[in-house]
Structure formats: structure tokens, C-alpha cells
Batch of 3 targets.
Target 1
Amino acid sequence: MFLKLDGTFWVQIINFFIFYAILNVVYIKPAAQALRKRREYIDSVQNEYDAARRAQRELVVQADQKRAEGRREGDHRAAALRSEAMRQAEEIVGKAQAEGLQISQDALNKVERELNAARASRYRLVRELAADMYDRAVRTL
């Protein structure tokens, strides 16, 4: 037979288990513990990354909401300012129209007074002009 079960075989088996026990204490357990710690660290970093991504998405949503709210508020303010500007413009136009109407009325009244004054003094002016023309005609003879 190829394999003999004599004393060397049992010594090699015991030697193997002793070697395995020493290897387990010196290398396998510390390596497994280091791998477990590394895995825990990687998992914690991954969890922190996922939490940061969720927070970032929430902040983006909040920023979009605030931006939309700001736009709405800006549109509302712009509409209010436009309305106020239109009211002021109408007020200014109304005042200018009233002033223009008053100026034209004053001018019309002045022209009417001057016309009435001219009509009232036309007979006097005609007499003065006739007298002046008579004087010139008589002096030239």
C-alpha cells in the first residue's frame, strides 16, 4: 500500500494541528480581525457618503423651493411696483392734463378779455385813426 499508518503519520497529523493552531493565533485571527475592522470602516464611510448624498439631495430640493419662492415673491413685488408706477404715472398725467387745461382756459379767457377790450375800444380807435388821417391829409394840402 502507498500510505502507511505508522507513528510518523500520527506525528505529522499532530504537527499539522499544532502548526494550524500557531498559524491561527499568529496570522489568521489578526488578519481576519484587520479585515473585519477595514470592512467596518469601509461600511461606515459608505454610510456617511450615502447620508451626505441624501442631505445634498434634500438641500437641492430646499434650494429649488427657496428659488421658486423667491421668484414668486419677486414677481409679486414687481407687479406691485408696476401697479404703483402706473398709478403714479396716471396721477402725473392727470395733473399735467389739468395744468394744460387750466393754461389753455387762462389763455382763452385772456384772449376773450383782449377781444372784448378791442371791441369796446374800436370806435375810439377808429375816431383816432380818422382824426390822424384827416390831420395828415390837411397838412399835406
Note: The longest helix spans residues 7-120.
Target 2
Amino acid sequence: MECCLPKGELVKLDGGKAGLTLRCTSGLVWLTRGDGRDYLIAAGRSFELASGEMALVEALQSSELQLGEPASQKLKAVIGLVAC
């Protein structure tokens, strides 16, 4: 899923059952997930939320994001195919 955030827009993300990968394709976003740290995710970078984890994201510039399943879930699928 892709989304565009104008500067200053806030979005709440939920890692759900499988987790979530946020990839910033343009712009710059700030992310906090309740661990006492702040994360800046610039264009070309990504961040993974664990299963059940919540985060708040704010666009520090107009930004484009891709949201999808975590790389670890994709790896499990490939390993599952190899094992068959």
C-alpha cells in the first residue's frame, strides 16, 4: 500500500498480527513507537514494526510511503517454498 503525507500530517500505524514495514520513497518522516526513542526515516530507508507494535509517524516534509509485510515474513514464505 502506498500513501502520500503532506508536511505536518500524522498517521498512527499498527504492526498487526504479522508486523509491518514502512519504506519512505520520498521526503522525510519522524517515527516514535513508545520506546523513548525518535527515528528519522529518509527517502530510501525503511523501518519495521513488530507484531502488535504501534507507532506514530509525522511527515517532516511532503513524503511518500510504502507499507507492507516485513522482510522476515517474506523470507519465511521463500523458506517454506524451498522446504516443499
Note: Confidence is low (pLDDT under 50) at residues 74-84.
Target 3
Amino acid sequence: MHFTIMKRLMFLFFMLFAGTTAWAKAEWQVLENIQLAAKPLDVIVAADNRWIYLLDDQGQLAIYGTNGQLRETIAVGRDVDQIKAGPREDLVFLLSRARQTVQLISVNVIEEFDTRTAPSKGPADAPITIAVFSDFQ
């Protein structure tokens, strides 16, 4: 009986330590380094990966493009201490432990295009310009 226990222990030892160990190597590089004026509290990426939302300790929600360019800053209040991505790219949850609230806000970043040199029809001073991107392949 003693021999059977020894055999089982040796088999267990063999199974635990006999396998080969493979060490993975990770390569990494800094793609963007954003210098902030205030201490960051939280960061999220929009559902469509177009925007980076960064909350700081001064109550500002900064919106960055994925190229690291600041697009807009929204004052959300110093009591907001956490943000969460919504189910759509334009929705952001603002969490405040001090107020015990969760706010859902809709954020729409307005894109501006310089159409002064683009081909157009109609008067140059028209109040609305409709841009059609139809030459993409």
C-alpha cells in the first residue's frame, strides 16, 4: 500500500513539473503621450474607437481624437469621479459618489470641413453646404 501512495505522488510530481514552460515576450512602444493640466481620474474609449474621453480632478471631461488631438472640453463638475462608456459612441456615464448619482450624457463632436476650395454647385455664400464623399474606393 505504501508503494502505491509513493507511485501516485511521483506521478503527480511528474505531471506538475514535467511540462515545458514557455515564456512569452512582449514588445511595446509609446504611441501617444498626452500632457495634461490636471490630474487624470478616469479614461474611456468610445464604442466606435473615434474618441478618447478623459476625466480630470478639476471636473473637466476632455475629448481627444485617436490621434491625441484635444477636440473639446466639457465642465462636468468636480464631484464627478468616474466615467463609463455607453452602449453607443455618443453616450457617456458620469458617476458621482459624493452626490450618489449616475448621469447619462450624449456627446456629439461637430466636425468642421473647409469647403472653400472644393468643387461646388450653387452660390458660395449659401447658408448650408452638403458634402458628398463619393470618390472613395
Note: The two ends are 76 Å apart (CA to CA).
